[in-house]
Design goal:
homotetramer; about 350 residues; alpha+beta; Chorismate synthase, AroC fold; five-stranded antiparallel β-sheet; four-stranded antiparallel β-sheet; 8 helices; about 20% strand
Amino acid sequence: MNTFGRIFRVSIFGESHGEEIGVVIDGVEPGIDLQESDFARDIDRRRSGAKGTTPRIEADEPHILSGVFEGHTTGAPLTIVFKNTNTRSQDYSKLIDVPRPGHADFTANVKYGGFQDPRGGGHFSGRLTLPLVAAGVVAKKILAETISEETNGHVQFRCNARLVEIGGIADETRWEAALDAAQKEGDSLGGIVECTVDGIPAGLGEPFWDSVESRLSHALFAIPGVRGVEFGDGFAAARMKGSEHNDCFTPDGIDGHEGLVTPATNHAGGINGGITNGNPLVFRVAFKPTSSIAKAQRTFDFAAGEMTELRVPGRHDICFALRTPVVVEAMAAIVLADLIDLA
Amino acid sequence: MNTFGRIFRVSIFGESHGEEIGVVIDGVEPGIDLQESDFARDIDRRRSGAKGTTPRIEADEPHILSGVFEGHTTGAPLTIVFKNTNTRSQDYSKLIDVPRPGHADFTANVKYGGFQDPRGGGHFSGRLTLPLVAAGVVAKKILAETISEETNGHVQFRCNARLVEIGGIADETRWEAALDAAQKEGDSLGGIVECTVDGIPAGLGEPFWDSVESRLSHALFAIPGVRGVEFGDGFAAARMKGSEHNDCFTPDGIDGHEGLVTPATNHAGGINGGITNGNPLVFRVAFKPTSSIAKAQRTFDFAAGEMTELRVPGRHDICFALRTPVVVEAMAAIVLADLIDLA
Amino acid sequence: MNTFGRIFRVSIFGESHGEEIGVVIDGVEPGIDLQESDFARDIDRRRSGAKGTTPRIEADEPHILSGVFEGHTTGAPLTIVFKNTNTRSQDYSKLIDVPRPGHADFTANVKYGGFQDPRGGGHFSGRLTLPLVAAGVVAKKILAETISEETNGHVQFRCNARLVEIGGIADETRWEAALDAAQKEGDSLGGIVECTVDGIPAGLGEPFWDSVESRLSHALFAIPGVRGVEFGDGFAAARMKGSEHNDCFTPDGIDGHEGLVTPATNHAGGINGGITNGNPLVFRVAFKPTSSIAKAQRTFDFAAGEMTELRVPGRHDICFALRTPVVVEAMAAIVLADLIDLA
Amino acid sequence: MNTFGRIFRVSIFGESHGEEIGVVIDGVEPGIDLQESDFARDIDRRRSGAKGTTPRIEADEPHILSGVFEGHTTGAPLTIVFKNTNTRSQDYSKLIDVPRPGHADFTANVKYGGFQDPRGGGHFSGRLTLPLVAAGVVAKKILAETISEETNGHVQFRCNARLVEIGGIADETRWEAALDAAQKEGDSLGGIVECTVDGIPAGLGEPFWDSVESRLSHALFAIPGVRGVEFGDGFAAARMKGSEHNDCFTPDGIDGHEGLVTPATNHAGGINGGITNGNPLVFRVAFKPTSSIAKAQRTFDFAAGEMTELRVPGRHDICFALRTPVVVEAMAAIVLADLIDLA
């Protein structure tokens, strides 16, 4: 379905080259101070323009259509829309004949029988992560206020995602060269995003189906281009011994949690038995390299019934993972705002 | 919540040391041939007794309580229960005072305020994967029948998960020695399970929230002890170039799909844009080492208010990942039976 | 929640005096011929202007924002919005001090703590039934096409709701006089709508929670101002004997169902055990009299802390039930489109 | 689906003549004092044996299978089962050939293709209201405790349903004679149940889809044999004027609410705009006459392909509505426990 969440519920709609894209958020409590300028910072982080991203820039101005009255949320569904301004008339019919490798052209065609909007990826477009970022801003506000209130201001919610690897390179000083090289080859790069969430109280989540990892991974794998999600030590945990991986308890806590008994280490990424343990949540998300590349690919032409050579035209991100940390944060916040509402 | 799925819906209940554990499955179509003996093979694969698993063995006999009449499903909720036979009276109060590192003792205590059933992990116990395996058997039946019917018997559903790594070792011939060494040290090992699902038609799943990866990862992270999930090339995809990772199309298909145009390679693990592309689904699941170890751990005693030394008593799996491939299959089948019902 | 349905899912958003109101419909299959003019007929039936309804008229022009490409649904979320044109700047703060009897002013204030948009009823406004009517048009299209396809054109879907009583008067020739009299007194009238749905196949619905009556009544009681819902003989059934109320089977069927064995009578309203039986669905919905009346009412002024006299200003429907038959049809179609998708 | 509720979620399973029937309740908070004897009073009210009900009596002993530890709920799924003791081996195949008028035999056969368990109504049986009554007991406990806590004991939750009409007769002194007469004729009677719920705080429910009336009617129409549901003045409201039906506010409140501003009258049944207004909830439920009658009915024999005469054998309730007040209460409590959890 197109909706996620039990209490704080997020639905997205729209197509890359349609008139508007947007998000409806249900379950937002009344009285939250909210205006269009609140979205600027996170939307800006998602915007292209930097090295390794497409030079094509959209205005990305949020417009609140419902759910806010005199600067505060009303408790009724909150609708935020964005106009699509940078759309071009192009011949997209070719995408149905020669589906782009790595894209959803082929699967969308199977699923929707040719009726999908093929322009710019339609409803599958990464552009739909823009309303998700907007929902993330609302979720972060709710989390920050709830956590501050419940702890009398002692604990602060912080959600920080950052790119820790591009094309297998962890050393940030070498990224620019790698991006330049990939661009020269007409190729693309992937990346890994790490996210840390501080201030989440112990006790959120459920055993089994609604484990925190289940809910977070559900949302994270909804981001286009994600290939893997891991928590705490992640895949490395499978290569550790119990005595190395177990987080023993100490009364020393960790940063900002002194005095509180918490796991002394954080191999589990802040979650035991599907439930938050008071430690920061830590997880990593693997993004594939951009599928659209200038380099020629041998692929099948369904109309001609034979193999053909395809170069995907247009200005693409060399490494779209560069634009995803704020999307990862948004997804984490959307999930956690729902879980904290349920607690 | 304790329920998963939209059409084929699975709820589990029970505690490790309670009277019975069980599963209620809603949305099972009528007329499926089902008897208690159908569960034997998969239940046997989950059973302990092999090298590296606990010598404590339970009967694990499924009992169908509702939803089957004269050997066929009726279409009404299907309830399957298992008696807990191998329970021991023990003093579990200590688990609340000195929560076992890596277990849910601490988080359950926070969440349920001391009212949780602490015996043997209560509702958090890995024992609850037994009814999940039972639900998986039903899901596999539905998938096998549906796929066979829809393809006039040309395509067969196959779901195969196997352990590909123990303690970081991929070479199966060296596993026994590694397990022996860990046991001698009073320590434990993790492992990685790889699952391949054949026969799934193209077109299942949805863009964004209900992507196939979202649904599968949601279910897989519900298995106790999972630290990571990746599809296709997974984390390695983040280190590849677009020209290496993209799956181009050819009319040659892959095994069993000759004549059909499909991706020639399977770097994406059978999914594009959240939707199955006709290739086999391929994913890997990282399991942490068993949390219960005989080796001494320094941890906190909440009652005494000081650090203490803990050795977790009892007979535990050295590597519980050994028993999980059939659980991974069950989760995959549960998700896919739901998605195929929605298609 | 603000969403209804399992497969065909309808969410509404907006406020009476906000910028736009709208609906997002998820689960619409691709390939349905749909354009803005398709909505005209049903929207027109909901429009005011006739005897007994408010003279205030809005443009009510639907605008499809997403989910349609080149005249057909794409399978992605379908969003339809309507501009609010006939809004007036007014002082609504009084509604919080002196809540209008029969309206949601008081309860909204309790629930949303004063943050609700009070203008024109905000999100509670009957104006929100406009996007519901739009969703009903889509649902009717799906039902008509599905039923026609599945019966090779032999059976036609028809959904007809009509007002059968105004102010307790069943004789339509006497309604005008009753409306005139109520208007003269500054008072208002209620009414009863009866709906008949033909062509629904036997077998839809579920025992217990998802009985057809449960789903229909859920949607019908979501219409503002509904006080009662009854199926078939309804409340009169409670005064009948089993031998009078039971529908025995005959091979003669009823209109349009000759040759088929169906219940010969339709005391049950087309449903047995929560499941459709092939007979037309028949149900009645009771609407209260319009709450806004010009006549003086004694009520409480929360600001002044004393009783006061209130006359609700503005041009109101004398009998808003006159405008509801198409809303009742929309709700029925929304429910049935979801149930037929599940079958 | 077989599950109802968002936070407090109730699933039922089982068949009339199967081994056990039961209920799984998810979302029960930990720490509620609960034992099997708590169910006795309400189960007893549902039991047959009184004038007008079947002389066939079952033990109806609840057995808590999971979710309770040392006398308190644990927060994990609560499972309660009941053995079916009074089942008889009978030839039920005839129900498929000659479906009983008014029963689900015909519709179940269409829906489940002959695989349904036909014995005693299978999963459609009124016997399934027994686990619903058990869920109602838990819901009532939650409501009583929550309301008492939140009002420091000033307000008490009370939920009282009673039969107000049998066979159209409101005068209770005449019921026995009516029941005797119906029995003599081999016929059956319907009835009307009225339910009043006190102590519910203002502010529960949502506009539109999750109005209190929507949720309550959804649950009430899930009870087998319900033909109508109305709130407050109900169908009579459609015959009133606005000035008669509107509930004006006074500071006098009503019984037990002195000092609080509430609607002075209760024509709306305690709900405005889908949200509780602090007044008692009042609603009525119409039950049809028992479908099984000894009297001969002309109906169709599908096997013989001709009309036949049917007398439904067995000992049936003359008026099953006599046993439903406690079921109506259970449904109300299930809905309200969920809504109060969401508030």
